Structures are given as C-alpha cells and as structure tokens.
Amino acid sequence: MDLIVIGASSGSQLDELATLTYALAAQPHADGGWRLENARNDAETRTQVDAWCQARRLDHAYIPPRSRLSDFTLLAMDMDSTLVTIETIDEIADYCGRKREVAAITEAAMRGEITDYSESLRRRVALLEGLETSALERVYEERMRLSPGAQRLIHEAHDAGLSTLLVSGGFTFFTERLRERLRLTFAKSNTLGIRHGRLTGEVVGEIVDASVKARTVLDVCAQLGITADRAIAIGDGANDLKMMHAVGLSVAYRAKPVVRAQASMAFDFCGLDGLLAVLPR
C-alpha cells in the first residue's frame, strides 16, 4: 500500500515514518500530500503510524498504488459537522432556549451511545414545538458555514466526473438550499412538520437514520449503474457508519472515535479537500 501523509512541510520530515513502515523515502504526491511507497500496513504498524501522525498533527491514509479520484463515480457526504461546521438542530434549539438539552442528545447519538437514532431525533424535534420557522432561516444565514475545503472538494469531484450526494439526518430546509448552492446531484434528509409558520415538533415521513442513509447511497449507486465500491462516503457520527461500511472508501472527518476507528481514513486536521491530496484527479 502507499501511505499518503497530509500536512508535512517536507519529505525529510517523514524520514522517521519511512523507517517505521519500511517504506521508500517520501515523494511529492498530489495537492501537498507526500507518498511513502510500499509501506507496511499491518495492524500494529497502522497503530504506530496513527500515533506518530497524531503527535505531529498530520493526517494520513493508506491507499492502493495509483488510486485516483476518477476511479470513483459517487461522493456521498453527511451534512452536520461534515459538509458544514455546525449541528443544525442544536443551533435551531438555541432560538427557543433549548440548545444545551438538545445538544446533549445530539452528542450522545453521534458517539453511538444512543442506539435508536430515530427516537433521539423525535425527542429533539419535539423540543422545538412552537418555534417560528424564521429561526431556520436565521440558522442558515447567520450560523451555517461550509467546512474548510468543502466547496473545492465538490468542484473537483464534479470536474472528475463524480456525482454528489448529500445524505443527512438533518432537515430538507437546509439540504435543499445546499444542494442548489453547491450544485449537488442528489440530496436526502428529514422534513420538519410546519403549521401556520411554526414547527409542530414532529418529523414528517420516514426518518433518515443510519439504515436509510446506507440504503440511499446504494439506491443512488443503482441509479448510476455502479457497484457500491465505486462510491466514497464521508461522515463524522455513528449514524454514518452503515453507509460508510457499504462503500468502497470511507472518510471519517473530524469524527467521533467510534467512527474514526472504522473508516478507511480519518481527517482530523486538514479540510475536506484533504481527499484531493490522497486521490489525485
């Protein structure tokens, strides 16, 4: 396998890592990444590499030689704390004085401590009952920011011929706006109940939980006429794990430990466009 390191100032900074992995000296790869060819990748070495990189605030990834972004056909992304920097439901709750209560449930669900995501979402949405829908607009305009490198990654993915999917346990109010703004190919999320300009405290229709996320990715793959190993999935929370397990390449982005441990690669320091340092077009 090739070991790609992101964030190193020079190849010489990685000499110790090359020795640790019995790899060739680091060479420039793509987009600021460095490639160590034929790196040892057994479990013990991977643990040592992870610790070495963490201590130096460097991201890394093991990939087969000559892997490229154009080897894939679909890029699927979570929204909250992945494509954007916030948890939108927590920010909505701030407008009715319930942020701390809602955020505690969100955090537990993302860490995998609450196994029934659908029930956790219903509990959180119920706390929003009666809130004016103008709060949603304020969250989008005032608090929602794209994660570093998000726009560039999407642009490069489109240029490389990939379709893009935003699949979220959040809400259509936000995902549809992001879909139009970023020209994403597909979007799937939950619908908030609204009556007379206020939230009803309910979710309308099927809840997009971990199983629905995975099913959506597989459905889009079928629509595109590809197998799931031609898809990339990026997420941060436990409800992303099923879709991440279903695809050919998974990226944990500033993720909870349970997600980081199971992904193909983890980005803790770079932006989303760190994927371009791993997979050149």
Would you summarize the structure shown here?
The chain is 41% helix and 21% strand. It is built from 13 helices and 11 strands.
Explain this structure to me?
The strands form 2 sheets. The chain has a 7-stranded mixed sheet, sandwiched between helices. A hairpin with a 2-residue loop joins strand 7 (186-195) and strand 8. The model has no long low-confidence stretch (mean pLDDT 96). The longest helix has 15 residues, at 210-224. Helix content is 41%, strand content 21%. It has helices spanning 15-21, 43-55, 79-83, 88-94, 99-110, 117-126, 134-143, 150-159, 172-182, 210-224, 241-246, 257-260, 275-278, and strands spanning 2-6, 27-28, 33-36, 59-63, 74-77, 163-171, 186-195, 198-204, 231-235, 249-253, 265-267. The protein contains 13 helices and 11 strands. With 281 residues, it is an alpha/beta fold.
What is the terminal separation in angstroms?
A: 19 Å
The portion of residues forming beta strands comes to 15-25%
Poorly predicted residue ranges:
none
Most strands sheet: 7 strands, mixed
Please list the strands of the largest sheet in the order they lie side by side.
8-7-6-5-9-10-11
Helix content: 40-55%
Please count the helical segments: 13
User: Mean pLDDT score, rounded?
Assistant: 96
Shape: elongated
Number of strands: 11
Supply the helix-strand structural class: alpha/beta
Whole-angstrom Rg: 20 Å
**Secondary-structure element series:** EHEEHEEHHHHHHEHEEHEHEHEH
